[in-house]
Design a protein that fits this description.
Shape: elongated
Number of strands: 15
Number of helices: 14
Distance between the termini: 35 Å
Mean pLDDT: 89
CATH architecture of the largest domain: 3-Layer(aba) Sandwich
Low-confidence stretches: 419-423
CATH superfamily of the largest domain: HUPs
CATH class of the largest domain: Alpha Beta
């Protein structure tokens, strides 16, 4: 394995190399998944796509990844939706879990190795809560709820950089009867009429949100996690509370690194179903190829906010056309020159350009998963391949190597270049024939015919560049 990938750790604020000391080369990755009471929106999928690229990059660099993502299938919003529909909460959860899995597959996001559901681990959660009560880290309230003593954990607030005395009681900290301190949070919620409930030493009820991930991550992957991730909106209180619970159970670090994806913004405000400023991803899929959505995600570093707009999505759609045109044109040219031996100098020059691109691509991903830089490298490689296709002395094997690398590297970023494209092979062959005919007209000094053919090509969206080596062409949507 070459030098390890370095990732920014939310807890320390530093970029640290990932060099797992456990089973050599194995990374235990846990990231927070959906609460399945409704369809997920594009902001949710930005986070999931981030960890998909991380998994692909780690695999490229020789790590074995054990990945787990939870499914929260019991929650206040789910209970409300089930009551409105007159069905069991499990029916709501299974319905939206299935829809989520469809969206995830459409986005080209590989499923994790394990996908535990909260309701499958409630007995283990009760066990963990009981240990916390025994150690004085938690207490039972008169109504049968159980709360964690936040201030009793000395590191509370460190992950999110919070000053405990300055935390405002409100949306992220819930004042409740029975709490010793407003900062304390529920590990177990006492049963309320009409809600699902499970048995516990404190009476029937259900687990709080935060204990779910603490318990499931430890049971599914073991401790310490090499990477615990999620969206930046989960840093406080969810991940802060997860960390406190876990390290009150076992003082060793719960996670060696905390990695968070930035928010998706709509008009400068967080994209959120509760705010009503963003719709489900599946609605967006009716208008945009999911691969265009993934290209849009690559325009900003994963840890930074990303602003959604129609203009940005239109640009991503045009970029996807360019990406796929490169592969389409190269494949068509490969068939045309199948078995052709090229000039050694030309082939070696292309090989060298591809090697430099691979090195730059890998360097970008090792530098805190810098996908925008890796993305730029691949657009440059696409231009290199387009230029190579116009080289009359290029051999088929060199072009095949370059194309294979191009497709593989886009795959590391989660972009499939083999799907439908606006430019089919018949159109490419038509362009190549017109370019050849124009070149022949120029050779016989038939300038009127050459101009007519140029106009026809321009009408097809083709730009012609006359060079000493002959005519080169590209689509007008390609950047130069």
């Amino acid at each position: 394995m070459d030098r390890p990938i370095a990732l920014r750790d939310t807890l320390t604020g530093e970029r640290v190399p990932l060099d797992p000391p456990a089973a050599a080369g194995t990374v235990r990755l846990y990231y927070c998944g959906p609460t399945v009471y409704g369809d997920l929106h594009i902001g949710n999928f930005r986070t999931l796509a981030t960890f998909d690229v991380l998994r692909r990059a780690l695999a490229r660099f020789g790590y074995r990844v054990q990945a787990a993502m939870n499914i929260t299938d019991i929650d206040d919003k789910m209970i409300r939706r089930a009551a409105e529909e007159g069905v069991a909460t499990s029916e709501v959860a299974r319905r939206y879990e299935a829809r989520f899995l469809e969206d995830q597959a459409a986005m080209g996001i590989a499923p994790p190795d394990r996908m535990p559901r909260a309701t499958e681990y409630i007995e283990a959660m009760v066990e963990d809560i009981a240990h916390l009560v025994e150690r004085g880290a938690a207490y039972a309230a008169p109504d049968g709820s159980v709360y964690f003593r936040a201030r009793a954990y000395p590191g509370y607030g460190a992950l999110s950089g919070q000053n405990l005395d300055a935390i405002r009681v409100g949306a992220r900290v819930e004042p409740e009867a029975g709490k010793e301190d407003d900062l304390d949070f529920a590990l177990w919620k006492a049963h309320r009429p009409g809600e699902p409930a499970w048995p516990s030493p404190w009476g029937p009820g259900r687990p709080g949100w935060h204990i779910e991930c603490t318990t499931m991550a430890a049971r599914v992957l073991g401790r310490p996690l090499d990477i615990h991730g999620g969206g930046s909106d989960l840093v406080f209180p969810h991940h802060e509370n997860e960390r406190a619970q876990a390290e009150a159970l076992d003082p060793d670090p719960f996670a060696r690194r905390w990695v968070h994806a930035g928010l998706l913004l709509m008009d400068g405000v967080k994209a959120s179903k509760s705010l009503g400023n963003v719709g489900p991803l599946r609605e967006l899929r009716r208008r945009y190829d999911p691969m265009a959505v993934r290209l849009f995600f690559l325009t900003a570093h994963y840890a930074h906010p990303l602003s959604w707009s129609e203009e940005a999505m239109d640009a991503a759609r045009a970029a996807l056309v360019r990406v796929r045109e490169v592969a389409t044109r190269a494949r068509a040219h490969l068939r045309a020159i199948a078995g052709r031996a090229g000039s050694e100098a030309v082939d070696l020059a292309l090989d060298a350009q591809v090697r430099r691109a691979v090195q730059a691509f890998d360097d970008a991903l090792r530098d805190d998963l810098n996908a925008p830089a890796a993305n730029a490298v691949l657009f440059d490689l696409g231009r290199t391949i387009n230029q190579a296709v116009g080289e009359p002395e290029l051999g088929s094997e060199a072009l095949a190597r370059a194309l294979g690398t191009y497709v593989d590297l886009w795959g590391v970023l989660g972009v499939d270049v083999g799907g439908e494209t606006a430019v089919d092979e018949d159109r490419v062959r038509r362009v190549e024939a017109l370019v050849s005919a124009r070149q022949a007209a120029r050779m016989r000094r038939d300038w009127a015919e050459a101009d007519r053919l140029r106009a026809e090509l321009e009408a097809m969206g083709v730009v012609i560049e006359d060079t000493r080596e002959g005519a080169r062409w590209r689509w007008q949507t390609e950047r130069v």
